[in-house]
Amino acid sequence: MQGLEAALNITILLGAAALFLVTVEVRIKRKRALKAIHELRALAHVIDMHQLTKDPERLRVLGKETPSSPKRTLRGSELIRYLDYCSEMLSLIGKIAALYVQKFDDPVALAAVNEVEELTSGLSRKIWQKIMILNTFPAPELV
Questions:
Q1: CB within 8 Å of 75: residues ≥ 6 apart
Q2: Torsion sign over Cα 131, 133, 134, 135
Q3: Are 83 and 131 in contact (CB under 8 A)?
Q4: 135 with 112: CB under 8 angstroms?
Q5: For the segment 93-136, what is each residue's pLDDT rounded down to a tens digit?
Q6: Three-class SS of residue 65?
Q7: Would residue 55 be called left, alpha or beta, if left means φ above 0 and alpha means ψ between -120 and 50 degrees?
Q8: For the chain, which residues make up each domain, given as ranges?
């Protein structure tokens, strides 16, 4: 009986070791992919932070500036171009995230990519709302 129990324990340990060795490559790839996807998510938030101060209503209604107010040097057409570039960068970030897992069918990494794509699409949607507001302004304000 003791020999059978020892053999069973050795078999279980060898199986666990084999499983560990088989999945180590997937875990290493997952860790690398998640790190890169996290960096892309951070870039998307940086782009969002930069465009937050680009309020199209500031071109229409001139309010009182405070000492800590950001400088508003962009005219309407320049602001549209800037916001369009921000939207394009967000789209590129979403596509690059998808490329990271193109040949890696890991559910955790795929879920992270889907989250980045949803994030960049949502941020891009907010930017396009600003562009649509700018396009409703009379032509002289855009020049």
A1: 59, 142, 143
A2: positive
A3: yes
A4: no
A5: 999 999 988 888 889 999 999 999 999 999 999 999 999 988 88
A6: coil
A7: beta
A8: 31-57+73-142
Alpha-carbon gap, residue 2 to 8, rounded angstroms: 10
> 76-100 and 107-135 are packed helices; what angle lies between their axes, rounded to 10 degrees?
170
CA distance 52 to 50: 6
Report which residue type is found at 106.
Answer: D
pTM of the model: 0.76
Both tokens assigned to 9: 């324990």
For residue 120, how many other CB atoms are within 10 A of its CB? 26
What length does the chain have?
143
Residues whose CB falls within 8 Å of the CB of residue 138, separated by 6 or more in sequence, listed in order: none
Per-residue pLDDT tens digits for 5-57: 889 999 999 999 888 888 888 889 999 999 999 999 999 999 999 888 887 77
